[in-house]
Amino acid sequence: MTEGKIRHMFPGGNTPFGFYSYYRYVLDSEQANRIFILKGGPGTGKSTIMKKIGLKLSKQGYDIELMHCSSDNNSLDGIVIPGLKVAVIDGTSPHVVDPIYPGAVDEIINLGEFWNEEGIIEAKEIILETSKKKKNCFERAYRYLRAAYELKADTEKILDLALDRGKETIFIHDLTKKLFGTTPLSETPGTQRFLFACAITPNGLSNYLDSLCTGHEVIRLYTSVGYNTNNVFKYINDEAVKRGFLTEAYCCPMTPDRIEHIVLPELKISVITANEYHDISENNRENVTTYHMDDFLNQDILTSYKPQLDFNRQYTDTLIRKAIESLALAKSYHNRLEKYYIKNIDFNQLTLTVEKLIDKILTYA
User: Is 78 helix (H, G, I), strand (E, B) or coil?
Assistant: First the structure.
């Protein structure tokens, strides 16, 4: 049996505005057969459960979407089995997920049932203290990102002054024609998903563009850091929706309401922003067309602002590194918390829960 395709993405992100959630787009509740929401503390096996389910179903030939955690990109916050219209989601803080259609679609699985509550209560004081330290680290990381955001906004303002809007407008028109040709407008608008392809994590900057673009024609918009490609992607997204296509819009963790990559699954085309922070790997560039967006910038204007641009770049990078350090410290406190829950979990019951959950999921095959 051919194994299923596995795609990777982030349903939420660490941003200058705190944790930003796109969990409502993991799987459309009105189209879903079942959404299982896992509840429980750190170390109660939520990510492990999802990894086991994803691996087993992938080996059975099902395509899988793995939703990674931006606070630990080696951990999962969700999995989706598109062919079965089933998802399993971590519904705990900071991405609290509650049932929209309880029983009809959504089902809560309470992993707290397998706790030795007395053992956890004995560690109450240290759990409270460690949780506060973890929270403080996240808040500090977000303050660093907010400061970096202001410098990034200044860089974008300068590049906007240097932009030849006429050339960009013509490029957008030609690119849209290349993507959609003579495809007519649809009476039924296309559906949209908003997620993250990239994240600011304790392990540094992480992206899954390779996974999302596999098997696609890729349009690669290479830019200087700070070039705002929002005009391009907003137009492409709107035109795709008007023509009835499903669009997967992947947003920027530094500006989470702004699209920086678009995947069109039905056309097998991906349009991505590539820069020093994120790009597809060189061994995945066989079916890639690259456009250099800096060609639309007036170099004389950029030269006149070089001191400001250099300052912004240097300290933006510094602040992002400091944010990553704070996220890494938050992760260390999270690891400490996990220890108190792990030693008080009945893993035999947890294993049975995984087996029962897989059986339930397969009833939708």
Answer: strand
